[in-house]
Amino acid sequence: MLIAEMPELGKMTSGEAAAMTGLAPVPYGSGTMRGKRMIAGGRRALRHVLYQAALAAAYHNLVLKSVAQRLKERGKPHKLVIVAVARRLVTIANAILKSGASWSQQSQT
Question: Where's the Transposase IS116/IS110/IS902 C-terminal domain (predicted)?
Fold first, then answer.
């Protein structure tokens, strides 16, 4: 799904990949008023698939589970934690395709 929806993956920076999937927070503010950041834009179907994958990864993948736990300990809301894990999934996929290496949990810890 990732490569089919995003053939540019592996040829861009991690920030560009996150923005293209709509997982990069966009500040909402005007002048001195500052609002919360939200995720929007990007490729909607891909964002939904990554969100579902992040739900599973936050509980079952050792590397991403530790990321999720660290954010929860800091008091972050559940949806923010899952979006952060989804962004990490895109970053990992982009790095794997860019370098040609295979996934190894030992190299991530």
Answer: 2-64
Residues 6+ apart with CB under 8 A from 57: 64, 65, 85, 89
SS (H, E, C) the chain: CHHHHCCCCCCCCHHHHHHHHCCCCEEEEECCEEEEEECCCCCHHHHHHHHHHHHHHHHHCHHHHHHHHHHHHCCCCHHHHHHHHHHHHHHHHHHHHHHCCCCCHHHHC
Answer yes or no: is 91 within a domain: yes
The string of pLDDT tens digits covering residues 82-103 is 999 999 999 999 999 998 888 7
Q: Which residue from 90, 82, 72 is spatially nearest to 19, judged by alpha carbons?
A: 90
**Per the domain annotation, does 51 fall within a domain?**
yes
Residues spanned by the domain of 22:
2-26+40-108
